[in-house]
Write a structure and sequence with these properties.
Blueprint: H1 19-29, E1 38-40, H2 51-63, E2 68-71, H3 77-89, E3 93-97, H4 102-112, E4 118-125, H5 132-143, E5 151-156, H6 172-185, E6 190-193
Parallel strand pairs: 1-2, 2-3, 3-4, 4-5, 5-6
Helix pairs in contact: 3-4, 4-5
Amino acid sequence: SNTSSAGSIFLDLPDLSSKELLIEYLYDTTEVQEMQIAIWSPPDPDKYYSDYTLDRICQTMAEAGITHVYNDTERDTVTLNRLMDCYAKYGMKSIIGLSLSKAQSLIIVKGTMNHEACWGYNLKDEPIFEQYETLADISKAVKSIIPEDKQVTTNFLPISSFYDADLDAISYEEYERYITEYAAVTSNDTLSFDHYPLYTRSEERRVGK
């Protein structure tokens, strides 16, 4: 992470007018030699129920450079482990989404945390202020039982569409409060956020992520 002299959590980025320039900037300013690319979400095992088909999809994902897969819905541990068996074969990792129920979250964690393809857990996708207390309790419980090599993360709402009702933007100050108050009460190893470069009003579908 990086902070400015004013203590802001936001990076002081140059004018990056294209994805190509952004990727070039990231490579030039970090020591990371390999770009980690995650997708949202996993292949649907209910649709691709054949082991052969699921294997071919995972192989295609890996060949495309995908390194991590977010699990965007609550799934049973049998399904999660089946997916991770396939990810492991092709060197990919799973970021497993948890429930707002601590009991259910711990069932998921205990049933998956020792799999080699388990990177860790996404506490909540796009949390809101009212959920912070609940997520703080869940994060503490999860961190107390997972192995040291497993991570806990949270994926946040994008600043461009903070209010799902009408996709109104909020101020940077308010968005910073959205992040910092969450980080202060929860146990996270990393944080991430969506970015929709193109979007329309709520009655239409957002384009791009």
